[in-house]
Amino acid sequence: MSSHICNHCNKSYTTKYSLIRHEKSINIPKQPKQTKEPKLKEIHKCKFCEKILTTKQRLLSHVDICKKNIRNSNIQDLTKKFEEITKEIEILKSNPVQQTITINTDNSTKNTLTNNTTHNYGSILSLTKEMIEEIFQKNYTMEDLFESQKGLADFTTKHFLLGKDKPLYLCTDKSRQRFVFTDKNQNETEDSNAFIIIKLMSKGFNKVDELYKEEMTILKRRLKRFIQDDNNTNIIETKHQLEQLENVYKKIKNVDKDGDVYRKQLSKLLPSSIENRKLCDEYLTSEDEDNQNEEDDNEENEEPESDEEDKQPENEPKYDKTARHIGGITYGGLRMYKNHYLKTGKKVYHPKHLGNPEFMKKFDEFCENDE
User: Fold this and answer.
1) Mean pLDDT of the residues in the chain
2) I need a surface site. Which of 5, 294, 309, 351 has the fewest CB within 10 A?
3) CA 239, CA 223: separation in Å to the nearest integer?
4) Total tally of structural domains belonging to the chain
């Protein structure tokens, strides 16, 4: 017969029931249940964007596609590339020899950017800090500042990237915003996200800072005066102007980190090929000549009027420059592009027409008519 022994006093009982009744009678304290300490929940946090993930595996997957991680990596790579490229500036020839530019379409083949097109354009790497600062000081205005990144792209194109004496910088694929320039050997180099041209332009931002501080001082003085006069309408308007000034200034200063507007505008303005670049430069040259002629005409008109009426000018223009005007391009400029089409059979659009179906359609009609 099995015995049931009390663990407390060692008495034995013949049945389990008797043992239980005995234990109740002597009030044996129950042992407290041991509780497990709660485990600390492991936090899986992205060090780049601080997003919290539920598992380590999900964290690892997230890091690979984290936008901030990718952006930081790209900036580091581009910064290193920019530092390497700027070392070539010292040995860049001031007057590079005419050569054919080539473009790498893949890892194994090379095709010319345009069919055997030669040029004598320089490289953006020849732009020194002193040159950039001087151009900004002479030409950058408050109007450019208030146009923010768009105005900066317009300024970059006009004063640095278009004109017969300016470096070669193209946007070969406007939809993907693929920017290219030439190195010291006139070989094509891609400027990913326009990083290098942005870095170069930032060397002239002292002028941006000056204009910002000047305008900020003026607006603050104006606001103080309106507050003293209790002029609520002008107080609200001036505060709005201060806020607007602050916003455009920040966007310009942060163009290297968030330059989508700058790149988009730059891609619209830049030629897509050397052939197109040459036509743009010819148009700019003819436009400058027209402006000079207009200035000369204005000076002549300031002279006392002649007594003879209805006298025809000796050098009457061969065509009416106001007869056609598409997208800001005068008849002379349009005619030059049309002559190129009639001569080569290739239709090249002015950068102001690219991306605008209405302007492109009008230009197509202009090329096909017998005018």
Assistant:
1) 76
2) 309
3) 7
4) 2
Looking at 237, 255, 273, the residue that finishes a domain is: 273
Query: Which pLDDT does position 163 carry in this prediction?
Result: 86
Res 323 pLDDT > 70: no
Angle between helices 260-269 and 148-156 (to 10 degrees): 40
252 within a domain of the structure (yes/no): yes
Measured CA to CA, the distance from residue 231 to residue 99 in angstroms comes to 65
DSSP string, 289-348: HHHHHHHHHHHHHTSPPPS--SPPPSS--SS-TTS--BTTB-HHHHHHHHHHHHHHS---
Mean pLDDT value of segment 324-329: 69
Q: CA-CA distance, 125 to 338, in Å (whole number)?
A: 34
Write out pLDDT tens, residues 51-73.
Answer: 888 888 888 888 878 877 766 66
Residue 40 pairs in a beta bridge with: none
Q: Could you tell me the two tokens for 114?
A: 């345009």
Domain closes at, from 243, 273, 303: 273
Residue-number span of the structural domain to which 341 is assigned: 318-368
Residue 206 Cα to chain centre, angstroms: 19
Backbone phi and psi for residue 340, each to the nearest 5 degrees, phi listed first: -65, -40
Q: Are residues 333 and 257 in the same domain?
A: no
β-sheet bridge partners, residue 178? 173
252 shares a domain with 140: yes
The residue whose two tokens read 């290219």 is 180
Residue 284, class by beta-carbon neighbours within 10 Å (0-12 exposed, 13-18 middle, 19+ buried)? middle
Residues 223, 357: one domain? no
Residue 253 lies inside a defined structural domain of this protein: yes
**172 and 248 share one domain:** yes
pLDDT in tens, 132-162: 999 999 999 999 999 999 999 999 999 999 8
Helix (H, G, I), strand (E, B) or coil at 126: helix
